[in-house]
Design brief:
Strands 35-36-39-37-40-41-42-43 form an 8-stranded mixed β-sheet, with helices on both faces. Helix 6 (534-545) links the parallel strand 40 and strand 41 (551-555). The protein is α+β, with helices and mostly antiparallel strands. The chain starts with 8 loop residues before the first strand and ends with a helix.
């Protein structure tokens, strides 16, 4: 029988709403069931939701366990595998639900105003340890929550601030309390606070005996000015007393006990003056008996964790580690030249062993009972679960378990991606990719767009990027690269622009434009540039120094480094990145600052910015817009109410659509 022909259509601005992705993976202790939350979007209601699903790892059959317009997240199995806890927001309160492995309706165990970050089982499944931040007292709101009603949203009469670090992009202004650890008894629902402090408690783990908790905390008198002075503590749940481990100060993530409880692994470094994520985050092994620690991969010049950047919302803020059942090794992610892959590391000092060799990204994974499940993506694979049933084998073998978004892939005509390498002005090797339109003909001349990623300590990766595929569908050749300052290429590459923004990174972006211009199918007169955050900074710098680009779109950008220092949620960390604060290094700031070159901007410029952006506040866009408008230049400012810095990845759906269409419209208007 002849195959039925599928009529394919081009990628549209709304396509992100058609994709369904897992957002968390949790294998049951016996490895037989995989719990995951599946994200989906309702364009009509302009909202996102996520429901809990359970997949049988033997057959690949998947069953939806929760239904309705909820946002379920963070599933975690009980130690005996008979129950599953997960989080959900309901009527203005964060909640914990538990559902039996045998099925049935989820039971709500916890409901309070505030923010739940994560939960873990302890004391043989008799209680849960929560990382929780209570909301500020509000009697009317508490009454509404108790009555299962939505509390009225209202602003305080005044916010009185006395700390440097008082808000976070996407999170908002902090309440009076910070994240601390609490114990929730399943028998009577009693909630007991376990830790206190001026700063958030970081990652934590429950010991195999269920009676101790290791956690990260900064107990400095002024943690805002000493952000990397983090320590490890072990809390006895019975006595509720904590003891500091004798490990060095430094950035720390994801402390995780070995199965026998004798060791602990955490990710971090000991550079107390690290610039923005330059120092490689490595696994450190702590002997809990002697208290000694050692860096297990001191010469491995790559960062642990997922450092990739995209617009579909994958990845984790911190590296994830899972031990093998025998405690002889552990597994984690590594970011490397556009890939995010899994590695295995034994307890000896040396480089880790790569166990997943397919190019692309592994944003999610889990391991239990020697079974390893991972979620893989690349430029044209929009999500596949793979399973290895003998993860401890010398050469782990993986098989496909489940495919996501197969129907979408079959119905879309995607652009083709090719890898490119070229040299910068000083001979440095730069890596990137070229995306061509679906109907590409190398004998034609095409307009093109050069994309610059944010961070700067991130990497463009081998994953489907909706924005770029949409622009390719509009007829543009899209080039995206990892200039110096990016992650994935080693410490020296990432640190090349410390106190030198707009130098070697600028040269690399110009070298990318040179390479692009040299291609016979590129119309040299119709090349545009765009980028967000740091990529917006670079866009501003570029159009202030050259007129080679026909049009530009700067997104949620940095325009004035001096005001950024005082207005950004992370501005108090500027001294590490820019060679001091503005008053300490005025000449350095002047050279690195896009404001210095604003008078030279003649390129038609679209400025898009979010009004609730705390990372690169809206005043950055207002300054740029005002300066150009007063000079009579071609400029527009598009402001998105209520949205934070991450709007392109998780903002209100209609605004994401408007943003993409406005970008394409701007390039079309000025690159005809």
């Amino acid at each position: 029988m002849a195959k039925q022909r599928v009529d394919k259509r081009l990628v549209s601005a709304t396509d992100f709403a058609e994709l369904k992705h897992p957002r968390a993976l949790a294998l049951s202790p016996d490895g037989e069931l995989l719990a995951y939350t599946q994200w989906w979007c309702d364009l009509a209601k302009q909202k996102y939701f996520a429901n809990l699903h359970i997949l049988e790892t033997r057959t690949g059959d998947s069953h939806q366990w929760t239904f309705g317009e909820h946002s379920d997240r963070a599933p975690v199995w009980s130690p005996d595998g008979t129950k599953l806890a997960f989080l959900r927001v309901e009527q203005g309160a964060d909640c914990i639900f538990v559902v039996a492995r045998s099925g049935g309706a989820p039971q709500r165990l916890f409901k309070r105003r505030g923010s739940l970050d994560s939960v873990k089982w302890a004391q043989g499944g008799e209680c849960l340890i929560l990382r929780f931040r209570p909301a500020d007292p509000d009697e009317a709101a508490d009454t509404a929550v108790a009555q299962d009603k939505q509390p009225e949203e209202k602003q305080p009469a005044v916010r009185k601030l006395s700390r440097l670090y008082y808000r976070l992009d996407g999170d908002g202004f902090f309440p009076q309390e910070r994240y601390q650890l609490y114990k929730l008894s399943l028998a009577d629902g009693k909630l007991t606070q376990l830790t206190k402090g001026l700063e958030d408690v970081g990652g934590f783990d429950v010991a195999p005996d269920g009676a101790h908790v290791c956690y990260i905390a900064n107990i400095q008198r002024d943690p805002d000015t000493k952000p990397y002075h983090q320590q490890l503590f072990v809390l006895n749940l019975k006595s509720r007393k904590s003891q500091a481990l004798r490990v060095g100060f430094g950035e720390k993530h994801s402390p995780t006990y070995s199965p026998d409880g004798r060791h602990l692994v955490y990710f971090g470094h000991h550079n107390l003056k690290d610039a923005w994520s330059v120092e490689p985050v490595h696994p450190w092994l702590v002997d809990l008996k002697s208290g000694k620690e050692r860096n297990l991969t001191p010469n491995f010049d790559r960062m642990a964790g997922d450092q990739s950047i995209g617009d579909l919302g994958f990845g984790s803020d911190s590296p994830v580690v899972v031990w093998s059942g025998d405690g002889k090794s552990f597994y984690y992610q590594v970011s490397d030249e556009g890939d995010v892959y899994l590695v295995r590391k034994d307890l000896r000092v040396g480089d880790p062993e790569r166990i997943w060799h397919v190019k692309g990204c592994v944003p999610l994974w889990d391991l239990a009972a020697d079974k390893l499940v991972l979620h893989h993506l690349d430029f044209h694979d929009l999500g596949t679960l793979h399973i290895c049933r003998k993860a401890g084998a010398a050469r782990p073998v993986f098989h496909v378990l489940r495919k996501f978004n197969a129907e979408y892939e079959a119905q879309r005509e995607l652009g083709r991606v090719r890898e490119v390498h070229f040299k910068s002005a000083d001979g440095a090797r730069v890596h990137g990719w070229l995306l061509t339109p679906p109907d590409f003909n190398p004998k034609r001349k095409y307009p093109s767009i050069l994309e610059v990623h944010g961070g700067p300590r991130a990497q463009y990766a081998r994953v489907f990027f909706h924005e770029m595929q949409y622009l390719a569908a509009q007829g543009y050749v899209v080039m995206f690269t990892n200039p110096r300052g990016s992650q994935g290429y080693g410490r020296d590459f990432a640190g090349a622009i410390i106190a030198a923004w707009g130098t070697k990174d600028y040269d690399d972006v110009m070298a990318a434009a040179d390479w692009l211009e040299a291609q016979p199918y590129i119309d040299k007169r119709r090349i545009g540039i765009t980028g967000g955050s740091y990529g917006g900074y670079m866009t501003n710098i570029v159009v202030g120094r050259t007129r080679r680009f026909r049009a530009a779109v700067t997104q949620r950008s940095v325009f004035d480094l001096e005001s950024f220092c005082g207005t950004s949620d992370i501005g108090h960390l500027d001294s590490y990145e820019f060679g001091g604060f503005p008053w300490e290094n005025p000449d350095g700031y002047r050279v690195q600052n896009p404001l210095t070159y604003v008078g030279n901007i003649h390129t038609p410029l679209l400025i898009e910015h979010q009004e609730a952006d705390f990372r690169c506040p809206i005043e950055q866009a207002e300054q740029l817009y005002g300066q150009l408008k007063l000079r009579g230049r071609i400029v527009e400012l598009h402001r998105y109410p209520e949205e934070s810095h991450g709007m392109s990845r998780g903002g209100r759906p209609d605004r994401r659509v408007i943003r993409l269409e406005a970008m394409a419209g701007w390039f079309k208007k000025y690159m005809k």
